[in-house]
Amino acid sequence: TNLNVYLLLISLLSFLFHCEHSLAFSLKNCTILYSENPNNVSVTCAKRHLTAIPDDIPGNAVSLNLSSNDLSNISRMYLRGLSKLEALYVKNNWILQIDDGTFADVVELKVLDLGENLLTALTKNMFQGLSKLETLSLNSNNISFISPVVFQPLVIIRSVDLSNNFLHQIKAVDYIFKLPTLQHLIITYNTFSSFQSDDLHVNTSNLLTLSLDSVKKFSITRDIFPHLQSLDLRGWSKDIEWEVSNKTFLRSLTRLHMSETSLSFDVYRAILQTAYSLQENSKIHTIKENMLQSCSNLVELNLSFNNIKSMADNALQSMTQLRSLILQNNELSELPVAVQGLTTLEVYDLSTNDISELYCPYFWNLTSLTILDLSHNQISYIFDCVFQNLNNLKILNLENNQIMSFIDTFKDKLQTLEFLNLRNIDIMNFIHGDFRSLSSLQYLCIDLDECDSVDEGGFEGLDNLQILYLLGDNYFYDHFSGLSNLSTLILNVVQSQSHNSSEQRERPFSNLQRLKKLHIKVHRGYYDISKDVLSGLTSLEYLITEAYFMGSLYPDTFKHTPQLKHLRISYSELSVLTSDVFLPIPNLIILDLSNNKLRSLDFLAEAKLSALRWLNVSDNELFVISETVIQSLPGLTYLDLSANLLTCECSNYGLIQWIQGSKQTQVVNAHQYTCAFPVSQRGKKFLDFGFDSCWIDAALLCFLFSSSLVMLTLLASFIYHFLRSHLTYAYYLFLAFLYDNKRRKKGIPHSYDAFVSYNVHDEAWVCGELLPELEGQQGWRLCLHHRDFEPGKPIVENITDAIYSSRKTICVISPNYLQSEWCSKEIQMARYGYQLFVLTCNDIASFYTD
Fold first, then answer.
1. pTM for the full model?
2. DSSP of 52-114, one letter per residue?
3. Which CATH number covers residue 779?
4. Which of 267, 480, 661, 815 is most buried (most C-beta within 10 Å)?
5. SS3 string of 462-484?
6. Residue 433 in domain
7. Average pLDDT of every residue of the chain
8. Are the beta carbons of 687 and 656 closer than 8 angstroms?
9. How far apart are the first and last CA of the chain?
10. Contacts 24+ apart (CB under 8 A), 655-659
């Protein structure tokens, strides 16, 4: 019911400002949920299409959720090693069979949920070893047989749910009633024809609550339920025989639930007369004037979800102790007069009816009222005297009505009110001082999107307000004046507009020095955010924004929020961030940048976020995550990279290694990540990509190759410049050696008797004196440079041919010969010939001969 809006708001705030994040490690098909207690390791594998229990469940897990998968059976080997498991949820699978002894190793198990499966029988040793089990759910199976001894190992069981099965006789569950510690039993939606104490072989049951399906006969002739406090008879039909031979047999019964029933008036009366201690009656479809006359001890009456259009004026006259009346979801068009005299009433729920008018005297006698819910009606105006005398009212819900103004509605009244819900109303004018008298108000939800004018200081007087939910088109500095104790602000901006440059627009929160939690969501439009928009929020710890910081962030955006621990910026089209943005918030623990357009996380490398534990960057455009980024976050325990464009290349080799090897950080659903690039790998699993080629560091290879190439180029240049002729000489010397060997092997005769090696300056002496002597007188055939060398042929080849085509080599030594480079080479080559003769044609200095 809407009576719980107070608690629901707290839950909403908890949801907004706290993320479900994980403790450590990356599992293939499961996620480890966050817990402040490191020993409380909870693992969820729900909705993963699993056909078998994963083998990588941490051995220290205390809770395991395998619901909504495709499991067909459970055997002992699947649970071996989970000795600390306390809760196991396996509902909504296809389990047909559970082997005997399956749970023998999970001796610490306290909660077991096997609901919504296909089990047909509970066999003898199915629950062996579950001596600490307290809660067992077997609802929505096909169970038709239960072994008489199946529940014997459950020595401290407290709750069993066997609803929605195929049990035909109450004898089938006879053994359950014998369990001494059993307190709660649900056996609705079976096919029992009767429920009779004579069919139960038990003297006394310790049951506190019993939920029973419609039967043709309900008979208790023995005092077997002395402790029964609550009886659920929902869905019972009018063809029933009710027999309780002694009213004392149900002496402890205080709560009776009969929703969706079609019982006759006589049966209703018989039931109510039997339950004389009844304190709470739920959902009676039809009420007549004297129907509840015997229920003088009734404390809570729930008549919701019926078609009640009116109530008799004296229908509740006997209920002098009634504290709670729920009339939610009916067809009441006016306030029921029967309620006016209930001075003990504390909770009154009239939500979801057709009430259009609140008249003044109606609530005046309800002085004990603490909770009043009038939401989802047709109320358009509230007179200033309606809430008079409600001096104890703490919660007032007026959500979803047609109220247009609050002129003096709260003036000088409701000083104890702590919670006020004004969402989805049609208020046209928000006037200064409307809430001035609500000095105790701590929680306020209000919609101003239809408001034509908003007075400055509209919240004046709400000095104790701690949580404000505000929906509207804009917000300004003066709106929050007087809210010095506000700790949580939730802004839903329906249609944003660009701010003009002014103090109240550029620094709208400067009055909220104690604000710790701020949530801003923009539904339509675009804000031109000032760099000082967070000015004054020196105590802010949680900041959640959606479509607010569009496109980019100023480097000093968070300079005013040094205490920030939780930051979420999503749906903001951020593509580039710098490390300077995060330097003013070193205490950040949780960072959510999901649903943006980020292409790199390199900004985190220099952001100095050593305290960061939880990082969500899902639904971005990230390609590569560098090792530098990972190393810069030493405290990280949770990382979500889902729905990014990860590249399956060596650039992500470090990320792959880290995901698979980290014992501190869980990369949630990492085994489901797929490759986006290159095209040849698209769609394949990211962690399955073969990184064999990445074992050798590509950067090192490039360095070695380039260094070697540079050194080789320098060496070649050096040799070419300084030793070019020597290399040429060595080359031809080698050719000469080969040529000589070839001639010797073939036995080719010499063409000359001698090759004369001389300098050109000694040519006159050679031709004038040596040549006539050797060729003329001795008859030798000489080989001379100027006469016998082949024109156009390289000089070295000519010299080589001349030396090896002659029997002897005659070197004419002179100073010019010794200074000539080619002459020196000729004499060196001649040394490898057959005979070398040296002639000195004149005196040679000693340094030449050396």
1. 0.73
2. S--TT--TTEEEEE--SS---EE-HHHHTT-TT--EEE--SS---EE-TTTTTT-TT--EEE-
3. 3.40.50.10140
4. 480
5. CCCCCEEEEEECCCCHHHHCCCC
6. no
7. 85
8. yes
9. 119
10. 655/624, 655/625, 655/627, 655/630, 656/686, 656/687, 656/689, 656/691, 658/627, 658/630, 659/26, 659/687
Are 298 and 274 contacting, i.e. CB atoms less than 8 angstroms apart? no
Cα separation of 850 and 836, whole Å?
18
> Is the CB of residue 187 less than 8 Å from the CB of residue 171?
no
Average confidence (pLDDT) over 447-455: 72
Q: What is the pLDDT of residue 449?
A: 76
Alpha carbon of residue 615 to chain centroid: 8
What pLDDT is recorded for position 19?
46
- The pairing of strands 135-137 and 145-146 is unpaired
Residues 666/694, Cβ–Cβ less than 8 Å: no
Q: What's the rounded Cα separation, in Å, for the pair 714 and 721?
A: 11
| pLDDT 10s digits, 399-440 | 999 988 887 888 888 999 999 999 998 887 777 777 888 999
For residue 633, the 8-state DSSP code is -
Give CA–CA dist 371/552, Å, rounded: 46
Which pLDDT score is estimated for 603?
95
Identify how many contiguous H helices and E strands the chain contains and give both numbers: 15, 41
Which of 487-501, 623-637, 742-756 has the largest mean confidence?
A: 623-637
Q: Which of 793, 805, 797 is nearest to 833 (CA)?
A: 805
Residue 11 corresponds to which amino acid? S
Q: What is the pLDDT of residues 501-535, one digit of tens each?
A: 555 567 889 889 999 999 999 887 666 788 899 99
Please choose, from the candidates 733, 753, 848, 737, the residue with its C-alpha nearest in 3D space to the C-alpha of residue 805: 753
What's the sign of the alpha-carbon dihedral 149, 154, 158, 160?
A: negative
- Is 772 a member of any domain? yes
Q: In what helix (H) or strand (E) does residue 372 lie, and over which residues does it extend?
A: strand 371-373
The HSE-up count of residue 215 (CA atoms within 13 Å, CB side) is 23
The SS3 of residue 470 is strand
SS (H, E, C) 825-836: HHHHHHCCCCEE
Per the omega criterion (within 30 degrees of 0), is the bond before 678 cis? Answer: yes
Half-sphere exposure of 621 (CA within 13 A, CB side): 8
**Side chain identity at 661, as an amino acid letter?**
G
Contacts of 730 (CB under 8 A, 6+ apart): none
3-state secondary structure of 595: coil
Residues 668, 672, 677, 680, Cα dihedral to 10°: 160
CA distance 391 to 387: 9
Q: Residue 115: its pLDDT value, please?
A: 97
pLDDT: which is higher, 694 or 122:
122
Number of domains composing the chain: 1
Q: At what angle do helices 698-722 and 724-746 cross, to 10 degrees?
A: 80
Q: Which amino acid makes up residue 701?
A: L
Would you place residue 21 in the very low, low, confident or very high pLDDT band (cuts 50, 70, 90)? very low
Higher pLDDT: 88 or 453? It is 88
Q: Kindly tell me the sign of the dihedral angle through the C-alpha atoms of 676, 678, 682, 687.
A: negative
Sheet holding 782-783, edge to edge: 782-783, 752-757, 806-813, 835-840
CA distance 74 to 76: 7
Asked if residues 568 and 544 have their Cβ atoms less than 8 Å apart, the reply is: yes
| CA dist., res. 62 & res. 38, Å (int) | 11
Q: What radius of gyration, in Å, describes the C-alpha atoms of the chain?
A: 49
With respect to residue 775, please indicate whether it lies within any of the assigned structural domains: yes
Handedness of CA 262, 266, 267, 272 (dihedral sign): positive
Residue 247 lies in a domain: no
How far is it, in rounded angstroms, from Cα 483 to Cα 514?
9
Spatial separation of the C-alpha atoms in residues 780 and 808, rounded to whole Å? 11
Token pair for 215: 């039967």
Position 505 scores a pLDDT of 64
The C-alpha atoms of residue 140 and residue 658 are separated, in whole angstroms, by: 43
CA atoms within 13 A on the CB side of 248: 2
- The token pair that represents 695 in the structure block: 């074992």
> CB neighbours of 282 closer than 8 A, spacing ≥ 6?
255, 256, 257, 258, 259, 300, 301, 302
Mean pLDDT of 571-592: 95
